[in-house]
Amino acid sequence: MKTRSIFLTFFLIFPSLIFAQKSESWVLTSGEARALLPNSVVLDTRSRSVFYREHIDGSRSVSWEEFSVPNLPLRGNLLPPETLKKKFESYGIDSNRPVLVVSESKNNWGEDGRIVWMLRSLGHRSAFLVDGGYSGLKQLGAPVSNQGAPKNSGKFQIKADPNLIATSSEIKSNLKNRRYVFLDTREEREFLGETPYGESRGGHIPGAKHLYYKNLLNQDGSLLSSEEISTKLGELGIGRDSIIVTYCTGGVRSAWMTAVLRNEGYNAKNYAGSMWEWSSGNDKDYPLTAK
Questions:
Q1: What is the Cα–Cα distance from 182 to 271, expressed in whole angstroms?
Q2: Does residue 73 have a cis bond before it (omega within 30 degrees)?
Q3: Which one, of 287, 248, 17, 290, lies nearest residue 114 by Cα?
Q4: CA nearest to 83, candidates 115, 122, 47, 117
Q5: How does DSSP classify residue 210?
Q6: Which residues does residue 178 pair with via DSSP β-bridges, in sequence order?
Q7: What is the DSSP string of 58-113?
Q8: What does the pLDDT look like over 207-254, one tens digit per residue?
Q9: Where do the domains of the chain lie, and which CATH numbers do they carry?
Q10: Pairing between β-strand 144-145 and β-strand 55-56 as defined by DSSP bridges
Q11: In the chain, how long is the greatest CA-to-CA distance?
């Protein structure tokens, strides 16, 4: 415990050194996030009713929908960059301050990963998913409150990273490219053709691998170990030389998967439009199969 206390104190005093060491990390443990808390913006993706009962002091309540196109079939796509910039800054998000995104992993849809992927894809290199979520931070003594959110603003510079963003055109052009792996992160019933969330057609992208995103979680909602994640991907024939395009219904569960895979060193990118967008196209240009 003494060693742990010294380690956390070092985090608090020298946060810039930590970022230099963890520049490619997308996921922080609860302990790492707790140590960075005083210098960070905290975004809470739990429901607003839960948020206002109790939340990390100074955090802001956000939902993936408010940053996304409101109507089908493009609902999974992000709003225009300049619109997002204004929204980010109104939430106090600053390019020079770390952002910690929390949720309750067992009960959500990967919204925390969606927010992290969104910020990273637009240039924020220090946006992190917190493994253990809100409960993990609270258990480590993070101050909590039921007061309203702060009104501070930030300054955000958009620098889109195309390596994190997949498009329908890219997928169409690489359906037979063996370097590409299309990873379907939905439930098995969706993969096999059911359309419970307003998709125009059912099935999956031909040749896609299936890995339900929650299969990378332990029963308590924490992430599997790196070895366990690597084993699951290896069983699907996915290696570190693969270009992994994740998708789901509207790019939320798949964004979470992208965040986790990026944290593990895989070359993953998220298709935000996902099945809402893809299934709205014609059968020939946007093929789907249930086989």
A1: 10
A2: yes
A3: 248
A4: 122
A5: E
A6: none
A7: T-EE--GGGGB--STTSTTSBPPHHHHHHHHHHTT--TTS-EEEE--GGGS-SHHH
A8: 999 999 999 999 999 999 999 999 999 999 999 999 999 999 999 999
A9: 23-145 (3.40.250.10), 162-280 (3.40.250.10)
A10: antiparallel
A11: 63
Q: Which helix (H) or strand (E) holds 157?
A: none
The pair phi, psi for residue 210, each rounded to 5°, is -115, 125
In angstroms, what CA-CA distances link 189 with 6, 19, 21, 144, 203? 48, 40, 41, 39, 9
- The closest of 284, 286, 280 to 71, measured between CA atoms, is 280
Q: Token match 């101050």: residue?
A: 143
CB distance 35 to 12 below 8 Å: yes
Cβ atoms of 141 and 34 closer than 8 Å: yes
Asked if the model's pLDDT at residue 16 lies above 70, the reply is: no
Q: Is the four-CA dihedral 212, 213, 214, 217 of positive or negative sign?
A: positive
Output Rg (C-alpha) for the chain, integer angstroms. Answer: 19
Q: Which are the contacts of 80, defined by CB distance < 8 A and separation ≥ 6?
A: none
